[in-house]
Design a protein that fits this description.
The protein is mostly helical and 55 residues long. 76% of the residues lie in helices and 0% in strands. The model has no long low-confidence stretch (mean pLDDT 81).
Length: 55
């Protein structure tokens, strides 16, 4: 187990490890948007189906 090689592979060009929190936040926001879009589409389809049945 060579920890020195592992740590140098994870470091960027300036010797600082890249931040992954920004990428995680972007992914979480995308997932939230997809779930919201899915809910809106489902509600819209349900409303259309209800209106067509009532007519």
């Amino acid at each position: 187990m060579n920890t020195e090689d592992d740590s140098t592979q994870q470091m960027g060009t300036n010797g600082v490890r890249p931040r992954r929190t920004i990428a995680k936040q972007v992914v979480e926001r995308g997932q939230r948007l997809r779930t919201r879009a899915g809910v809106l589409i489902g509600m819209s389809l349900g409303l259309v189906a209800l209106l067509t049945v009532l007519e």
